[in-house]
Protein backbone atom coordinates (compact mmCIF):
# COMPACT_ATOMS: atom_id res chain seq x y z
CA UNK A 1 0.00 0.00 0.00
CA UNK A 2 1.31 3.44 -0.92
CA UNK A 3 2.27 5.50 2.13
CA UNK A 4 -0.05 8.43 2.75
CA UNK A 5 1.88 11.69 2.23
CA UNK A 6 2.39 13.89 5.28
CA UNK A 7 2.77 17.63 5.67
CA UNK A 8 6.49 17.02 6.17
CA UNK A 9 6.66 15.30 2.78
CA UNK A 10 4.96 18.26 1.10
CA UNK A 11 7.28 20.74 2.83
CA UNK A 12 10.40 18.76 1.84
CA UNK A 13 9.37 18.47 -1.81
CA UNK A 14 8.45 22.19 -1.97
CA UNK A 15 11.67 23.23 -0.22
CA UNK A 16 9.83 25.19 2.44
CA UNK A 17 9.06 24.87 6.13
CA UNK A 18 6.12 22.86 7.50
CA UNK A 19 4.75 26.16 8.85
CA UNK A 20 4.58 27.59 5.31
CA UNK A 21 2.68 24.54 4.05
CA UNK A 22 0.31 24.88 7.01
CA UNK A 23 -0.31 28.53 6.12
CA UNK A 24 -1.24 27.57 2.55
CA UNK A 25 -3.59 24.81 3.75
CA UNK A 26 -5.29 27.24 6.14
CA UNK A 27 -5.72 29.95 3.50
CA UNK A 28 -3.42 32.49 5.13
CA UNK A 29 -2.56 35.51 2.98
CA UNK A 30 1.07 35.97 4.06
CA UNK A 31 2.60 33.51 1.57
CA UNK A 32 4.27 34.48 -1.71
CA UNK A 33 1.95 33.78 -4.65
CA UNK A 34 4.53 31.66 -6.53
CA UNK A 35 5.31 29.64 -3.41
CA UNK A 36 1.62 29.14 -2.71
CA UNK A 37 0.96 27.92 -6.26
CA UNK A 38 3.91 25.49 -6.08
CA UNK A 39 2.72 24.03 -2.75
CA UNK A 40 -0.86 23.69 -3.99
CA UNK A 41 0.38 21.88 -7.13
CA UNK A 42 2.40 19.42 -5.03
CA UNK A 43 -0.59 18.84 -2.73
CA UNK A 44 -2.75 17.99 -5.75
CA UNK A 45 -0.11 15.72 -7.30
CA UNK A 46 0.49 13.84 -4.06
CA UNK A 47 -3.20 13.59 -3.17
CA UNK A 48 -2.43 15.08 0.23
CA UNK A 49 -5.34 15.60 2.62
CA UNK A 50 -4.60 17.16 6.02
CA UNK A 51 -5.76 15.30 9.11
CA UNK A 52 -8.65 17.46 10.33
CA UNK A 53 -8.28 16.49 13.97
CA UNK A 54 -4.57 17.31 14.05
CA UNK A 55 -5.16 20.45 12.00
CA UNK A 56 -7.84 21.63 14.40
CA UNK A 57 -5.65 21.03 17.44
CA UNK A 58 -2.77 22.90 15.83
CA UNK A 59 -4.77 26.06 15.25
CA UNK A 60 -7.36 25.59 18.03
CA UNK A 61 -10.24 25.28 15.62
CA UNK A 62 -12.85 22.62 15.00
CA UNK A 63 -13.29 23.47 11.30
CA UNK A 64 -17.03 23.27 11.88
CA UNK A 65 -19.46 26.06 10.99
CA UNK A 66 -23.11 26.31 11.99
CA UNK A 67 -26.32 27.62 10.43
CA UNK A 68 -29.08 28.71 12.81
CA UNK A 69 -32.62 29.03 11.44
CA UNK A 70 -36.30 28.92 12.36
CA UNK A 71 -38.38 26.77 10.02
CA UNK A 72 -37.66 28.31 6.60
CA UNK A 73 -38.94 26.64 3.45
CA UNK A 74 -37.00 23.56 2.35
CA UNK A 75 -35.94 25.25 -0.89
CA UNK A 76 -34.57 28.26 1.01
CA UNK A 77 -32.45 26.24 3.44
CA UNK A 78 -31.18 24.09 0.54
CA UNK A 79 -30.06 27.23 -1.29
CA UNK A 80 -28.34 28.54 1.85
CA UNK A 81 -26.46 25.28 2.34
CA UNK A 82 -25.40 25.17 -1.31
CA UNK A 83 -24.06 28.73 -1.10
CA UNK A 84 -22.17 28.08 2.13
CA UNK A 85 -20.72 24.75 0.99
CA UNK A 86 -19.37 26.16 -2.26
CA UNK A 87 -17.14 28.43 -0.14
CA UNK A 88 -16.21 26.33 2.87
CA UNK A 89 -15.56 22.91 1.34
CA UNK A 90 -12.38 23.95 -0.44
CA UNK A 91 -11.14 25.51 2.80
CA UNK A 92 -11.65 22.31 4.78
CA UNK A 93 -14.64 23.35 6.87
CA UNK A 94 -17.78 21.32 7.44
CA UNK A 95 -21.33 22.39 8.21
CA UNK A 96 -23.86 21.75 10.99
CA UNK A 97 -27.43 23.07 10.89
CA UNK A 98 -29.44 23.93 13.98
CA UNK A 99 -33.20 24.66 13.96
CA UNK A 100 -34.64 26.77 16.78
CA UNK A 101 -37.92 28.38 17.79
CA UNK A 102 -37.44 32.13 17.44
CA UNK A 103 -40.55 32.95 19.47
CA UNK A 104 -39.68 30.64 22.40
CA UNK A 105 -38.58 32.37 25.60
CA UNK A 106 -35.41 30.28 25.89
CA UNK A 107 -34.28 30.44 22.28
CA UNK A 108 -31.14 32.52 23.02
CA UNK A 109 -29.93 29.92 25.55
CA UNK A 110 -30.84 27.22 23.03
CA UNK A 111 -28.64 28.82 20.35
CA UNK A 112 -25.67 29.55 22.62
CA UNK A 113 -25.94 26.01 23.96
CA UNK A 114 -25.73 24.67 20.41
CA UNK A 115 -22.57 26.69 19.75
CA UNK A 116 -20.86 25.38 22.87
CA UNK A 117 -21.98 21.76 22.49
CA UNK A 118 -20.99 21.50 18.84
CA UNK A 119 -17.78 23.53 19.28
CA UNK A 120 -18.35 25.35 15.98
CA UNK A 121 -15.88 28.05 14.97
CA UNK A 122 -18.75 30.37 14.02
CA UNK A 123 -22.35 30.55 12.87
CA UNK A 124 -24.45 32.05 10.07
CA UNK A 125 -27.83 33.22 11.36
CA UNK A 126 -30.82 33.32 9.00
CA UNK A 127 -33.91 35.55 9.21
CA UNK A 128 -36.00 36.01 11.25
CA UNK A 129 -33.60 34.70 13.94
CA UNK A 130 -30.94 37.07 12.60
CA UNK A 131 -33.08 40.04 13.68
CA UNK A 132 -32.68 39.20 17.38
CA UNK A 133 -30.56 41.79 19.18
CA UNK A 134 -30.59 39.58 22.28
CA UNK A 135 -28.96 36.70 20.39
CA UNK A 136 -26.32 38.98 18.86
CA UNK A 137 -25.55 40.40 22.34
CA UNK A 138 -25.19 36.87 23.73
CA UNK A 139 -22.83 35.87 20.92
CA UNK A 140 -20.73 38.97 21.54
CA UNK A 141 -20.54 38.24 25.26
CA UNK A 142 -19.43 34.67 24.61
CA UNK A 143 -16.96 35.63 21.87
CA UNK A 144 -18.82 33.74 19.13
CA UNK A 145 -18.00 34.52 15.50
CA UNK A 146 -21.23 35.12 13.60
CA UNK A 147 -22.71 36.65 10.44
CA UNK A 148 -26.35 37.70 10.07
CA UNK A 149 -28.36 37.51 6.85
CA UNK A 150 -31.16 40.10 6.91
CA UNK A 151 -33.01 42.77 4.94
CA UNK A 152 -31.65 45.72 6.93
CA UNK A 153 -28.33 46.67 8.57
CA UNK A 154 -28.52 45.44 12.17
CA UNK A 155 -24.85 45.09 13.07
CA UNK A 156 -21.29 45.95 12.10
CA UNK A 157 -20.67 45.60 8.36
CA UNK A 158 -18.38 42.59 8.75
CA UNK A 159 -21.22 40.72 10.45
CA UNK A 160 -23.93 41.45 7.84
CA UNK A 161 -25.13 40.34 4.41
CA UNK A 162 -28.17 42.43 3.45
CA UNK A 163 -30.91 41.83 0.90
CA UNK A 164 -32.01 45.14 -0.63
CA UNK A 165 -35.74 44.47 -0.26
CA UNK A 166 -36.77 48.15 -0.48
CA UNK A 167 -35.26 48.58 -3.92
CA UNK A 168 -36.88 45.35 -5.13
CA UNK A 169 -40.39 46.25 -3.96
CA UNK A 170 -40.00 49.69 -5.52
CA UNK A 171 -39.40 47.92 -8.85
CA UNK A 172 -42.51 45.85 -8.16
CA UNK A 173 -44.64 48.93 -7.46
CA UNK A 174 -43.47 50.51 -10.71
CA UNK A 175 -44.29 47.32 -12.61
CA UNK A 176 -47.81 47.00 -11.21
CA UNK A 177 -48.64 50.62 -11.90
CA UNK A 178 -47.25 50.28 -15.42
CA UNK A 179 -49.69 47.39 -15.86
CA UNK A 180 -52.52 49.80 -15.09
CA UNK A 181 -53.17 48.64 -11.52
CA UNK A 182 -54.23 51.37 -9.09
CA UNK A 183 -56.36 49.54 -6.54
CA UNK A 184 -53.62 47.44 -4.94
CA UNK A 185 -53.74 45.45 -1.70
CA UNK A 186 -50.92 44.12 0.49
CA UNK A 187 -50.69 41.11 2.77
CA UNK A 188 -47.75 41.96 5.01
CA UNK A 189 -45.70 39.61 7.16
CA UNK A 190 -45.61 39.76 10.97
CA UNK A 191 -45.13 43.37 12.07
CA UNK A 192 -42.35 42.34 14.48
CA UNK A 193 -40.03 41.38 11.59
CA UNK A 194 -37.67 43.93 10.02
CA UNK A 195 -38.22 42.31 6.63
CA UNK A 196 -41.95 43.10 6.90
CA UNK A 197 -41.20 46.75 7.62
CA UNK A 198 -38.73 47.03 4.76
CA UNK A 199 -41.11 45.52 2.23
CA UNK A 200 -44.30 47.23 3.37
CA UNK A 201 -42.78 50.69 3.82
CA UNK A 202 -40.74 50.41 0.63
CA UNK A 203 -43.75 49.31 -1.41
CA UNK A 204 -46.10 51.96 0.00
CA UNK A 205 -43.52 54.71 -0.41
CA UNK A 206 -42.88 53.75 -4.03
CA UNK A 207 -46.62 53.73 -4.76
CA UNK A 208 -46.99 57.14 -3.09
CA UNK A 209 -44.32 58.61 -5.37
CA UNK A 210 -46.40 57.26 -8.28
CA UNK A 211 -49.51 59.01 -6.97
CA UNK A 212 -51.18 56.00 -5.31
CA UNK A 213 -51.99 55.72 -1.60
CA UNK A 214 -53.25 52.44 -0.17
CA UNK A 215 -56.35 52.63 2.00
CA UNK A 216 -56.18 50.98 5.44
CA UNK A 217 -58.59 48.20 4.52
CA UNK A 218 -56.29 47.14 1.66
CA UNK A 219 -53.43 46.23 4.07
CA UNK A 220 -53.74 43.02 6.13
CA UNK A 221 -51.12 41.39 8.36
CA UNK A 222 -50.40 37.72 7.69
CA UNK A 223 -47.95 35.30 9.29
CA UNK A 224 -46.03 34.19 6.17
CA UNK A 225 -47.81 30.80 5.93
CA UNK A 226 -49.89 29.32 3.13
CA UNK A 227 -52.91 29.09 5.43
CA UNK A 228 -52.52 32.77 6.32
CA UNK A 229 -52.45 33.62 2.62
CA UNK A 230 -55.77 31.83 2.13
CA UNK A 231 -57.38 33.61 5.09
CA UNK A 232 -56.04 37.07 4.22
CA UNK A 233 -56.75 36.57 0.54
CA UNK A 234 -60.35 35.65 1.30
CA UNK A 235 -60.71 38.75 3.50
CA UNK A 236 -59.49 41.00 0.67
CA UNK A 237 -61.41 39.21 -2.08
CA UNK A 238 -64.74 39.46 -0.28
CA UNK A 239 -64.45 43.26 -0.18
CA UNK A 240 -66.46 45.21 -2.70
CA UNK A 241 -64.88 45.97 -5.07
CA UNK A 242 -62.03 43.44 -5.06
CA UNK A 243 -58.52 44.84 -5.60
CA UNK A 244 -56.84 44.88 -9.00
CA UNK A 245 -53.71 43.27 -7.58
CA UNK A 246 -52.44 41.73 -4.32
CA UNK A 247 -48.81 41.78 -3.20
CA UNK A 248 -48.08 39.15 -0.55
CA UNK A 249 -45.01 39.38 1.70
CA UNK A 250 -43.82 35.92 0.63
CA UNK A 251 -44.59 33.25 -1.95
CA UNK A 252 -46.35 30.92 0.49
CA UNK A 253 -48.97 33.58 1.20
CA UNK A 254 -49.22 34.54 -2.48
CA UNK A 255 -49.97 30.91 -3.35
CA UNK A 256 -52.59 30.94 -0.58
CA UNK A 257 -54.18 34.01 -2.21
CA UNK A 258 -54.41 32.19 -5.53
CA UNK A 259 -56.12 29.29 -3.76
CA UNK A 260 -58.60 31.68 -2.09
CA UNK A 261 -59.30 33.29 -5.47
CA UNK A 262 -59.92 29.85 -6.99
CA UNK A 263 -62.35 28.98 -4.20
CA UNK A 264 -64.21 32.27 -4.79
CA UNK A 265 -64.22 31.66 -8.57
CA UNK A 266 -62.00 34.70 -9.22
CA UNK A 267 -59.63 33.99 -12.08
CA UNK A 268 -55.91 34.76 -11.73
CA UNK A 269 -54.68 36.61 -13.72
CA UNK A 270 -57.77 37.38 -15.83
CA UNK A 271 -59.52 39.20 -12.95
CA UNK A 272 -56.74 39.59 -10.36
CA UNK A 273 -52.96 39.94 -10.43
CA UNK A 274 -51.01 38.27 -7.59
CA UNK A 275 -47.36 38.80 -6.67
CA UNK A 276 -45.15 37.17 -4.03
CA UNK A 277 -41.62 37.50 -2.68
CA UNK A 278 -38.75 34.94 -2.49
CA UNK A 279 -39.14 32.85 -5.69
CA UNK A 280 -39.45 29.58 -3.82
CA UNK A 281 -39.56 26.16 -5.47
CA UNK A 282 -43.30 26.25 -6.17
CA UNK A 283 -43.35 29.73 -7.71
CA UNK A 284 -42.29 28.54 -11.17
CA UNK A 285 -44.10 25.19 -11.00
CA UNK A 286 -47.65 26.15 -10.05
CA UNK A 287 -50.43 27.20 -12.43
CA UNK A 288 -50.46 30.05 -13.03
CA UNK A 289 -46.74 30.45 -12.34
CA UNK A 290 -46.09 33.19 -9.81
CA UNK A 291 -44.73 36.66 -10.50
CA UNK A 292 -42.37 37.25 -7.58
CA UNK A 293 -39.16 38.82 -6.34
CA UNK A 294 -36.12 36.57 -6.37
CA UNK A 295 -33.44 37.00 -3.74
CA UNK A 296 -30.06 35.51 -4.75
CA UNK A 297 -29.99 33.33 -1.63
CA UNK A 298 -27.01 31.21 -2.71
CA UNK A 299 -24.93 34.34 -3.33
CA UNK A 300 -25.97 35.82 0.01
CA UNK A 301 -25.05 32.61 1.82
CA UNK A 302 -21.71 32.39 0.02
CA UNK A 303 -20.92 35.97 1.03
CA UNK A 304 -21.91 35.17 4.62
CA UNK A 305 -19.57 32.17 4.62
CA UNK A 306 -16.71 34.29 3.28
CA UNK A 307 -17.29 36.90 5.99
CA UNK A 308 -17.46 34.24 8.70
CA UNK A 309 -14.21 32.58 7.64
CA UNK A 310 -12.61 36.02 7.46
CA UNK A 311 -13.53 36.56 11.13
CA UNK A 312 -12.26 33.13 12.15
CA UNK A 313 -8.97 33.52 10.28
CA UNK A 314 -8.42 37.18 11.26
CA UNK A 315 -8.34 38.50 7.72
CA UNK A 316 -8.08 42.29 7.21
CA UNK A 317 -11.27 44.31 7.62
CA UNK A 318 -11.13 45.59 4.02
CA UNK A 319 -11.84 42.02 2.87
CA UNK A 320 -15.16 41.87 4.72
CA UNK A 321 -16.97 45.10 3.91
CA UNK A 322 -20.75 45.46 3.83
CA UNK A 323 -22.45 43.19 1.31
CA UNK A 324 -25.71 44.54 -0.15
CA UNK A 325 -27.40 42.07 -2.49
CA UNK A 326 -29.97 43.18 -5.08
CA UNK A 327 -33.20 41.20 -5.40
CA UNK A 328 -34.84 40.86 -8.83
CA UNK A 329 -38.43 41.03 -10.08
CA UNK A 330 -39.39 37.86 -11.98
CA UNK A 331 -42.51 38.30 -14.14
CA UNK A 332 -44.57 35.16 -14.78
CA UNK A 333 -48.20 34.25 -15.43
CA UNK A 334 -49.97 35.47 -12.27
CA UNK A 335 -50.01 39.11 -13.42
CA UNK A 336 -51.39 40.87 -16.49
CA UNK A 337 -52.36 44.33 -17.68
CA UNK A 338 -55.48 45.83 -16.11
CA UNK A 339 -56.83 46.53 -19.60
CA UNK A 340 -56.77 42.76 -20.27
CA UNK A 341 -58.97 41.96 -17.24
CA UNK A 342 -62.22 40.17 -18.01
Automatic annotation (TrEMBL):
InterPro entries: HTH_LacI (IPR000843), LacI/GalR-like_sensor (IPR046335), Lambda_DNA-bd_dom_sf (IPR010982), Peripla_BP_I (IPR028082). PROSITE patterns: HTH_LACI_1, HTH_LACI_2. Keywords: DNA-binding, Transcription, Transcription regulation. Residues 5-59 form the HTH lacI-type domain. Gene3D superfamilies: 3.40.50.2300, lambda repressor-like DNA-binding domains. It holds the Pfam family LacI. GO terms for molecular function: DNA-binding transcription factor activity; transcription cis-regulatory region binding. PANTHER family: LACI-RELATED TRANSCRIPTIONAL REPRESSOR, LACTOSE OPERON REPRESSOR. This is LacI family DNA-binding transcriptional regulator. It comes from Salinimonas iocasae.
